[in-house]
Amino acid sequence: MKAKLFVLFQIIFLNCAFGQTANPYWQNFTSGLRVADICFKGDTALITSAAGLSKIISGAGLVENYNSINSPIRTNSSARVLSASDGSIWMSSAEEGLYHITNGNWELHDQWNRYNYGQINLMALDGSDRLFMVAY
Predict the structure, then answer these.
(1) Taking a C-beta distance cutoff of 8 angstroms, is the pair 80, 91 a contact?
(2) What is the DSSP string of 26-55?
(3) Using an 8 Å Cβ cutoff, are 50 and 32 in contact?
(4) CA distance 136 to 122
(5) Rounded CA gap, 6 and 22, in Å?
(6) How many CA atoms lie within 13 A of 1 on its CB side?
């Protein structure tokens, strides 16, 4: 019986000690366990959450986080993200509208907010990088 308990203890201990994450470079500590969207731009993952936008370069372990402190985002709550073929990024905010990020320049498109369309819940780009959105 003692041997079985010892083996069970080892399994639980090793699982807790070494099985915490498959990606040692990024853990979702700040967004309330909610990831809104993920898209890939080459070897970079773009992740939106209640903590803003995170960029993770695969394999290199480089992480860049953009939030209301270090970027033009007014509130951290980000909803959807897309990567265009020209290298730009489209990111919808849960409360502000749509950001177009080109070469580090952030442009806020909030013209539909005055019509109270609501949060942008779906976004897609066609073959010509034209943006289509659904807000409700």
Answers:
(1) yes
(2) ----SSTT-EEEEEEETTEEEEEETTEEEE
(3) yes
(4) 9
(5) 26
(6) 0
Number of other residues whose CB lies within 10 A of the CB of residue 25: 14
In a 10 Å sphere around its CB, with 0-12 CB exposed, 13-18 middle and 19+ buried, how is residue 136 labelled?
exposed
Q: pLDDT of 56-109, one tens digit each?
A: 887 777 788 888 888 888 888 888 999 999 999 999 887 778 899 999 899 988
Which two tokens mark 71? 């970027």
Q: What does pTM read for this prediction?
A: 0.71
Instruction: Categorise residue 79: left if φ over 0, alpha if ψ from -120 to 50, beta otherwise.
Output: alpha
Alpha carbon dihedral 90, 84, 55, 98, in 10-degree steps, equals 0
Residue with token string 């500590």: 29
